[in-house]
């Protein structure tokens, strides 16, 4: 099971917390109850940002962190992940990370035993426990459904719709919208299968890539029911829809082909959010 599922991180460090976007997320994470202990900002060690003590290097922390939220620009992600490798959970916010850098970062995190979320992620929220990133806690509510999404917009939409429908969430995670993810959907499913507090898993995918095929193979081995919804059924082939990962270049990358594979694997498929909510309401009775 992923380390954050057994115990929400208690010592969280933020890389590059001084930018305007990062500073806003620092405030949101604090408001959600996340214990932020330090920031990493090269050249500003010894200073403070909004009460957060700053260090030049993660090795200067007085105690080890158990999660890091990384707000470095795309070109700095690889160095930041290498520096943070070994921290159990890494959340990498930046979009447009160079593909080879993203590959190397994912490899470095995996080799060090870190669970990397992203790049190009809003992070994750565990309702009632804490927030790592920028998913609005007010959209979420505690409950048994684990929500995994490739799209940031869909992450927020589904959390809010589920909450409005009275269906709470164990976890809401934007696993990353780029072609390369630190952990792929089937790995998330394997981790969630071992969590006794998860009653069902909602996977929201999209066109592009082939990660859903490994997910389909993992579903029969999952102890939880899986509901799958994919957006982009009407997207024209070869056109990127919103971000780097959402581009169908071959038939197997289309929403229809991937939904068929997921259904064959045992997922209950939904054409739209309303249908997904109907299925989950039935499963969570």
From TrEMBL:
GO molecular function annotation: nucleotide binding; succinate-CoA ligase (ADP-forming) activity; succinate-CoA ligase (GDP-forming) activity
Ligase found in the keyword field: yes
Gene Ontology terms: cellular component: succinate-CoA ligase complex (ADP-forming)
GO terms (BP aspect): tricarboxylic acid cycle
Domain of life according to the entry: Bacteria
Residues forming the catalytic site: 243
Keywords carried by this UniProt record: Ligase, Nucleotide-binding, Tricarboxylic acid cycle
SUPFAM superfamilies: NAD(P)-binding Rossmann-fold domains (SSF51735), Succinyl-CoA synthetase domains (SSF52210)
Record has Nucleotide-binding as a keyword: yes
CoA-binding domain span: 5-97
Pfam families for the chain: CoA_binding, Ligase_CoA
Name of the featured protein: Succinate--CoA ligase subunit alpha
Source organism (scientific name): Roseicella aerolata
């Amino acid at each position: 099971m992923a380390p954050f599922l057994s115990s929400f991180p208690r010592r969280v460090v933020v890389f590059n917390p001084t930018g305007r976007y990062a500073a806003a997320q620092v405030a949101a994470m604090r408001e959600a109850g996340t214990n932020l202990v330090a920031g990493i900002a090269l050249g500003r060690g010894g200073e403070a940002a909004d009460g957060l003590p700053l260090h030049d290097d993660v090795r200067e922390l007085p105690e080890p962190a158990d999660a890091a939220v990384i707000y470095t620009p795309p070109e700095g992600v690889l160095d930041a992940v290498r520096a943070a490798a070994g921290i159990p959970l890494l959340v990498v916010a930046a979009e447009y990370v160079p593909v080879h850098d993203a590959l190397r970062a994912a490899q470095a995190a995996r080799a060090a035993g870190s669970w990397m979320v992203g790049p190009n992620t809003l992070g994750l929220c565990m309702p009632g426990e804490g927030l790592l990133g920028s998913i609005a806690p007010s959209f979420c509510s505690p409950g048994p459904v684990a929500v995994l999404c490739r799209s940031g917009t869909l992450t927020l939409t589904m959390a809010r719709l589920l909450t409005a429908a009275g269906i709470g969430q164990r976890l809401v995670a934007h696993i990353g919208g780029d072609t390369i993810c630190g952990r792929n959907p089937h790995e998330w499913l394997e981790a969630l299968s071992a969590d006794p507090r998860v009653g069902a898993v909602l996977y929201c995918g999209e066109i592009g890539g082939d990660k859903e095929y490994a997910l389909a193979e993992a579903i029969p081995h999952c102890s939880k029911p899986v509901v799958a919804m994919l957006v982009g059924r009407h997207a024209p082939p070869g056109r990127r829809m919103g971000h780097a990962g959402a581009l169908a270049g071959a038939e197997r990358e289309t929403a229809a082909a991937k939904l068929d594979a997921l259904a064959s694997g045992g997922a209950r498929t939904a054409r739209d959010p309303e249908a997904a909510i109907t299925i989950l309401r039935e499963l969570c009775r």
